[in-house]
Structure formats: structure tokens, C-alpha cells
Amino acid sequence: MVCKSHIIKCLVGDPHYPLHEYHQKGDLIIGAIASQTFIISESITFNEEPPPTLFEELAVVPKNYQHILALAFAVKEINENPQILPNITLGFHIYDSYFTAKWTYHATILLIYTLGRFVPNYNCDFENNLIAVIGGLDPLTSLYVATVVDIYKFPQLIYGPAPVMNDKIPGISFYQMAPKEAHQYAGILSLLLHFRWMWIGIVTYNDENGDRFVQTVVPLFSQNGICFAFIERSEKFSVVSEINDMFEQGAKMNDKIMSSKANVAIVYGESYTVVFLRWLPYVSKQEHNINKPKGIVWILTAQLELTSMVYQRTWDTEIIHGSLSFTIHNNNPPGFHKFVLSRNPSSITGDGFIRDFWQNAFGCVFVNSITDKVKGNVCTGEENLLSLPGPFFEISMTGHSYSIYNAVYAVVHALQSLSQLKHNTMVERGRQKLQHQQLWQLHHFLKVVSFNNSAGESVSFDQNGELAAGLDITNWIVSSNQSFHRVKVGRFDPLAPPEQAFTISEEAITWNRGFNQTQPLSLCTWSCHPGSSKKVKEGEPFCCYDCIPCPKGKISEKEDMNDCHKCTGENYPNQNQDLCIPKSISFLSYEESLGLSLASLALSFSVITALLLGIFMNHHNTPIVKANNRVLTYVLLISLLLCFLCTFLFIGQPQKVTCLLRQIAFGIIFSVAVSSVLAKTITVVLAFMATKPGSKMRKWVGKSLANIIVLSCSLLQAIICTVWLATSPPFPEADIHTMSEEIILECNEGSVILFYCVLGYLGYLSLVSFTVAFLARKLPDSFNEAKFITFSMLVFCSVWLSFIPSYLSSKGKHMVAVEIFSILASSAGLLGCIFAPKCYIIILRPELNSKEHLIRRKY
Q1: Is 50 helix (H, G, I), strand (E, B) or coil?
Q2: Phi-psi region of 279 (alpha: psi -120 to 50; beta: other; left: phi over 0)
Q3: CA 103/CA 256 separation, integer angstroms
């Protein structure tokens, strides 16, 4: 193409040239879009050509000047290293984006086309041998650059997180020198869950990028139990007339933040957002005269830096003290400190950024060559960069500067790989140049580039062209004199195993002074202690709830449980209902007082019965023993002795044998005892009736009838017990449900119906015996045994009638104790009522133990 710039210039008017640029010549050029200066002017009316920008309209972010120095330092290192791109010098062209789309597009076009000419798609020489573009800092700036450089296949390396780039028009891949933003979301979530900050706020800009962030994190965090007290969106401003509106909006936002119970807020926005964040307490104090702001833990995303503008030099930085920031990992390459400290406006030429940086950082003004009148301090150019507070400038390399430094090396290493593969170079004017058409092939080498930088750290991209690295968690500490330093307190590394991805050192964190160095809490409702559960308040977020005690029988062993739950069968809740305690084993044992008392009582009655048996056997031939069938007497005494002894089958831990025997033995032995009483009663009645003249009852009087009664009645009970054993025998079991605090070891009776059949049959025999004895109670004998049998059966029936409700209302070992007591009481009743009067005569009144006395009738 023939150069006809004077013709084209007539057709396309040049816009105002950028106020800031920095060029360094080289065989190959790296372009860069920096972000250092805001232009705050009146709104454009389009009625006339806008005037050039004045110095008074510039608002510089001094800290961002380090980004320019990082690129210049990397190029200097490369040019001084003969091992990298030998015989080729590297240069750069840097323009400012001014944080606007218009100036970003303008700067990108100046990078791509002929240097010094704003003529789109026109290049008439090889002076501008551009190989890659580094930029931008903020997401939208990166997108604006991409829309131009994608057309010409120039590699673009951005040095800040930019998720908006994923939605750009498909084209050439970009390379992100910061970990992808999804890692930040996961890291922030891990941080919130670690400190149990479940009630938080969000502060962001009301733009596409802010909406994307909110739409991403709100559902993600909500799924993990985190609620949002507020989501505040701030408007951006670019013209003077919008400042008052921004102040008013900021005052309302600050009041809402300070009145909220949330002590934690996530701040997401552009790199300069902290500048506006620091305005909040000031605009609120001016407009509403509120009290001193409460402490807040600001969680800042990797895009944000602690920056100040010149008018904020004396502002308090308390608002951001103790903040936690997810930062791009950074390091200090050797020689960077020295390089930075060597910079001053007097010794550097071609740097169009340094003078405005110097004036804003040091709060001074350079003397104008046209007039000597200046307002404020005069800049000498020899001011010491070390004297600047951290919010204005840092000597150590920041995360964004480190990304730019690595971006330059990534391009150079990819270029070196390309030049080693392609030897078709062209030489012009003594300089070695790559052919322009080979730039497309540079993308292949950038995707796979991997190298160790001068700081000794590995740099490579993942399959999506994003830096394969994690994020540091940094604690911002600011002193009253605005001295600022960062403390690394943790890390989120997505490449590590899941359980090691998030690490944090709580002891290393300095919290905002409003928390008195205690870990802050951020909850809508104080945690529900163990022993209670959450009840969500109607119409409020799920993080706002009431705490209600667990119902009886349920527990919650952790805080903030959604519901209480029952203990397993072997455990029971403690008094506070926050722990399950193993149940104690319960059975009627000899070691406890109840079991020992019953055993002692049974043994005592057994001894007494044995003594009575001995006495009767010793007086075997006396009339009172012979009377009323002494064999039945012995059978009754032996059965009562066995009744007392069978109670020992009920005491102690239930075993298979004891469970099988105890109810069967009890039923059969008691049947023998009661049938013996019945036989004795019938014998008394028949004997009285047989004494009447002409009575036919004499043939029934004798031992045979008594034996038949005892055997038949006992045999029927034995048949019932046999059926019981054959169909559903008793067995030992552990009852874990009846008692809340005990596991009851007991005998399951198997068939409850057969168990009550045994008892019912005993009751039937007892009732028959009582009825017969009651009818014979007034027989005119001097020693009327029927009267004593009546008393004994009355006691017997009373005991077993009271047994049924007592047994059914008892639980555990007390059921066994009730049955033992009933056995002992009924047996003792028979023993006492029937045999005590006879023993009295045998031992104390032997003169009454005669046949004449016994057969004498009383009328």
C-alpha cells in the first residue's frame, strides 16, 4: 500500500491524542493497555467538538503505575539476557485505557496500526512489529481490547480475572494471567464455611459483571446454607454532574450496611473499587451524622487493590483494616526493588505516565515551563518512593504486576519456541524479524508454554488458557499513618487434593478493631445450641430462625441442627438432650437390695416350711397330723417348699434354661399345692357328711379320692404347660423400648395366651377351693380345718387378684418382683393359715393333740 496519510487524514479526522503513552523501540513490540488515570469531565453534548482534556480533569490511581514498571522491567531483563531471543531486541508500546471504552478502543487501534496514526486497517511500514497485546486490568477493558485484536489474530494476555471474556464473540483464544474466577467463588465459600459466616452482604457495581457475580454466587452459597442480608449495587460515574448522585447513593448504602446484623461483606468490582469503598463512611457522616462505623470484615476479590487517590491522602483507612483478600500469587523478581527505586522524572525519557504519577503520589506539582506560578508543593523529581504509604504505591511487586511480568515472559518463551521451529526469517535493515503471517502460529506455543521465571516459580496455562495456579488469602493491615502491609494468612489451591485445597491460619489474622481481636461472628440468629433445633421464621431467609428445645426422647448433638433425632435402641438422651448415653443393663439381680430382699425372704420361708415338715414328720402318729390325710399334708408342705424355692428361678440374669423352667415350675407346683388344699377341703366335707346316720358318703371317704383330685388337677395344668413348651416356649430377650434409660433383660413368655391360661387355671382351682372351704367353714368340729383353709384361700385369691393389675402396670425387673412377691405372699398365706394353728397345738398345747378333743363337736 502506498502511504497517502495526508489524503486519508482529510477523510478521517484524528481524535485527540492520548495524554499518556510510553514507547521503547525494539525489533519486536509488545503492546500494553494500562489503567492508571480517570478522566472526569463535563458530559459531552455532541453540539461541538469536545475540547482537549485538561490536567484538572485527571484523577490518577498512583498505585497502578507499578503495572507499567513491571512490563518495563521484564523487557529490560529479557534484552539483557543473551540466552533469550539472541540478536533480537524487545520493545513495548503502552497506552492508558482511562477506564473507558472510547479510550480503550482508541489505544488498541494505535497499537495495531502505524505508530502515530489513527488510521484503522492501515499500515504503511514495518516500524510497528507488534507481536502481542497485554491488557487489560478490568474485565470490560479486556473485552474492549479483545474485540479489536481478535480480528488480526494478535495474542491477548490479560492480567486480571475476566469472566466476561468467556462470552465474547468466538475468535482467537485469550490468555489469562490470573486463576479463573470460579476458583475465587470456591475459595470464598470455603472461607465463609470455615468461620461459619452464614449471614453476609454483597457490594458490587450495577453492571453486567456485577450481575454475573451475583447470579453465580447467590445460588452457590445458598446451597451451602449461606444467606444474604443485603446485596448493594453501586452506579459508576464518569462525569462531574453524577458525583452528587453517587454521594447520596453511597450514604444510603452505608447506612444499610451499618444497620445490618451482617458483619461480613463480599466486595466485587473493578480494580479501583476500594477508592469508592473508602468514601462510604465519609459521605454518610456528612449527610446523616451517624456514629462511628461498626467493624466489618470485607472479603475482597482478586481484582481489587488497596488504592488511594490524591484527595484521599489524609482519609482514615480504618474501614478496610483487617480485610481478607483473595489475591493473585506474587513474588519479587531479583532486581525489581532496585529498578523501581531508580525511577524518577528527571532520569527517565519517553515515559509519559511518570509525571502525573509523581504529582499525585507525592501531592506536589511540577513547575510549568510556561509559567512559574504553581499551587501547592513543588515537585523536585528526587522524592523518595519509599516514603509513600502503601495505598499510593508499593515497592514490592503486587499480584497484577506479577501477572504482567509473567505475561511478557510467556510471550517471549512462546516466540522462542516458534523461532526454533521456523527458520524462515527475513532480515531487513540489519534486524532479524519474524514474518507477520507467523503470528497466528504463536497461539499454539502460548497454549503449551511452561517455564520457570526469574523468581523460581513455574508458569503454565490450563486447557482453557487460564493460569494454572491458586490464590493467596491476604490480610490487609493498615496503621493510623496509612502505612499498609499484607500478611499472607492462607491459600486456596484447586490443584491440591480436596481436603487440602483450602488452608487458613486463624492466629495470623488481624481483625478489624471493632472486634477487639476476637473472631467475628456473622449470623442472622445466634446458633442453636445442641439439644435444640431450628425453626425457620415465616417470611424470612432460612438463616433467620428460632431455636426450639428437642422433644422428649430426641437429641441434637450439633449446633444449628434442622431437626432432632432419636437415639439408637441401645442409647438414650441425656438430661440436656445433646448426647446419647448407653443404656444400663437391667434385671433383678442378687446384687441389688430388691433382689437380695426377695431372695432372703424366699429362703426364710423355705427354711420355715422345711422346719414345719420336720415337725409334722416327727409327730407323724399324733392325732392332729393323722387328721385329714397326713399324706396330703406332706404333699402340701413339699409343694409350698418348692413354691418358695422356685422364686430363685426368677432372680438373676435370664438364661434360656431359667426362662423355660420358671413359669412352668411355678404353674405346676402351685397347681399341686392348690389341688392339695382342694382335696383337703373336700375330705373334710365328706368326713362330716359320712358321720351322719345312713349316709352313703362313707364309700368316698379315703385316700383314693384325695389322690385322684391332686393328680387330675395337677395333670391338667401339666398338659397346658406341655402345650406351651411345644408351641411357643419362653425365651430370653433384651427389651430396649420399654424403659428409656435401661435395656431390660427379661424372659419373653412366648405365648401370652398360654401364660394367662396357666394363671387362669390356678385362679379357677383357687376359687373352687375357696368356695368349698367357705361352705364348710361352720362345721361343728372342735378343730375345724375348713375354717383355716377358707382364710388361707381368701389370702391366696386376694394376692393373685391384686397381682394382675400390679403386674400389668409394672415394667422391667419390677414385673418380676411383683410375681415373686405374689408367689411368696400366697404361699406364705397357705402356710400360715393352714399350718400355724396345728403347730401351735403340737408345740405349745400338746394336751389338745388327742383324738377325744379333735372328734368332739361344738354346737
Answers
A1: coil
A2: alpha
A3: 35
Give which of 93, 88, 89 is closest to 72, Cα–Cα. Answer: 93
Angle, alpha carbons 92-96-100 (nearest 5°): 145
Closest CA to 685 of 777, 770, 790, 788: 777
**pTM listed for this prediction:** 0.70
Report how far residue 248's alpha carbon sits from residue 243's, in angstroms, rounded to the nearest whole number.
Answer: 9
Alpha-carbon gap, residue 245 to 58, rounded angstroms = 20
Q: What is the dihedral of CA 655, 658, 664, 668, to 10 degrees?
A: -170
As a whole number of angstroms, the distance between CA 748 and CA 453 comes to 80
Q: Quick check: 839 and 619 in contact, CB under 8 A?
A: no
* pLDDT the model gives residue 290: 47
Q: Structural domains in the chain?
A: 5-180+332-460 (3.40.50.2300), 181-331+472-515 (3.40.50.2300), 532-582 (no CATH), 593-855 (1.20.1070.10)
Strand pairing of 584-586 and 742-748? parallel
Return the closest-CA partner of residue 16 out of 52, 54, 42, 56: 52
Q: How confident is the model at residue 551 (pLDDT cuts 50, 70, 90)?
A: very high
The rounded percent of the chain whose pLDDT value lies above 90 is 30
The predicted structure's pLDDT at residue 400: 93
138-162 pLDDT, tens digit per residue, is 888 988 998 888 888 889 999 887 7
Sole residue written with cell 456473622: 522
∠834-838-840 over CA atoms, to 5°? 120
Residue 528: burial class (beta carbons within 10 Å; 0-12, 13-18, 19+)? buried
Tens digit of each residue's pLDDT (9 = 90 or more) over 835-851? 888 888 888 887 777 66
Which burial class, exposed, middle or buried, applies to 778 when counting CB atoms under 10 A from its CB (0-12, 13-18, 19+)?
exposed
pLDDT (mean) for 279-298? 66
Q: What is the rounded distance in angstroms from the CA atom of residue 701 to the CA atom of residue 679? A: 11
Q: What gap in Å lies between CA 772 and CA 758, rounded to an integer? A: 21
The three grid cell numbers given for residue 755, joined into one nine-digit string? 401364660
